[in-house]
Each structure stands twice: as C-alpha cells, then as structure tokens.
Amino acid sequence: MANDKYTAVWVSHTSISDYRECPRAYYLKNVYRHPATGNKIQIISPPLALGQAVHEVVEALSVLPTTERFREPLSLKFDTSWKKITGKRGGFKDKDTEARYRSRGEDMLKRISDNPGPLKNLAVKIKQELPYFWLSDEENIILCGRIDWLEYLPQDDSVHIIDFKTSRNEERPGSLQLPIYFLLAKNCQNRPVKKISYWYLERDNGLTEEPLPDYDLAKAEVLEIAKKIKLARKLDLFKCSHGNGCRACLPLEAVLKGEAEHVGTNSFGQDVYILKKPSRSHEDSIIL
Fold it and tell me: From start to end of 98-229, where are the E strands?
C-alpha cells in the first residue's frame, strides 16, 4: 500500500532544530494549536523579522532572468517587505530598535548589490512549492524544506547550494542545515550537487564554502532524529529537555499563559505574538 503524505510525519531543518533544542518547544511550535483560533503560534522578534524581510527580497531574485535581477534597486523591494513586519508585527517595541534593524537589512542588501557574485548567474528553481521527498517509506516520514539558492554550474550541469545568513553568529557546529539541504537537492531535482556554501551577509562580501556532506551518513543522522520525533508524536511525550523550562520553551509557554500580545497572522497562517515582558535572552540569540 502506498504511503499517504497526509498521514506521514513531516520534518524539516527548522522542526528538527526545534526538537534537538527542546522537545517541548518543538511541540509548542509544530503541534500545538491555539484553542481560540485553531492556528499554530509563533513569537516574532527583531532578528527573526529581519531575516524574513531580507530572505524575501533575495528569494524573489531567483525567479527572475539574470538580466532583470538588479534592474530595480533592492532597497525598493526591501521597502515593500519591511512594511509587512514594521512595528509590533516584527517584534519592534520602539522606533529606535526598528531603525537599527532596518539599517542592518539595508546594509546586507547593499552588500549583495555591490558584490552579487553567484546571484548574477543562472539559478535552478525546484518546481515544487515546498520541496519534499520520502525520507523513509517504511517509517512514513517526509523531509521537506526550501533551499535559499541553487546556482546553476553550466560547465558540468551541476548545482551549488547557497544559504544566506542574516545573524551575526556563525552556524553552530553539528548543524544539520546543509546536510538537509543536500538531501533535498539530491532528491528534488536531477542535477548533481557540486558545491555547498553559506553567505554571512552581515559581514562577508562572498561565500564561505563548506565540505559536501556524505549522503548516506547525512540521511542516517536525519532519519534517526526524525524517528525520535515520530515516536514522541505517537506517545504525545514532549518534555523540556532542561527540566522545568528553558529559553526555547519558556517564551512559548508565556503565550499559553496569556503573557504575550497577539499582533497578527503571518503568511503561513500562524498566530504571531510578542512577549509582554522582556526576554532574559540576548536580542540577537533568542531561541524561537
């Protein structure tokens, strides 16, 4: 009998990261639905809003012909994206904070305009709106996710995976982000993956190339965690891995306690909140 994608357990880089950080946070972000609306919940913060706005501008470039990508200033596209997250909708509690983050975003996009590098080259666009494949038919598990950019390398008809970073911090050691994107690129389009890189837009004018993952090892590691997520969902067992609450789950628990303000609904149909009380975490490193 064929597997049914509607009964499968879907995992992604984000949901796997949530579970590795704290199973309770995973539950509150990926399973729980607010009883009043039936929607999932999200806490918005300035770093998250900044990342959303910059990524929206960059993602829109990949569907344009190379000759048209920089015809319109990226600052104008950024203005449009920023309107969606201005004020409380982006977690900004005062105009000075918003201006500071907006300036950071403008600097990142200026860096891209001044140093377009691979963005001026041909790109591959996966036809699926949300790329996915069966990570395990036997376990009925699907891996999904959107890759920021696939540069086309015509010399050998291959692709280069590029992930854009808007945080000031480097990706953590042991991150599964690039291995997951590698698996997705290998299974959701036919060209071989030749290269894989990060672009730290806050600081660098070009890419930081990373070693290509081993396919079998990457798949085994991702599947191992996905099976733990599947079991936790089956048993409805999502305990905080740090005891009585941690920086990953406590902000989300505040939403359930009515200690957060609802500021809208995002494009994914999630109810968006901001915390009424200041978080104890650093504004650039809060785990959401």
Answer: 132-136, 141-144, 149-153, 158-165, 193-200, 208-210
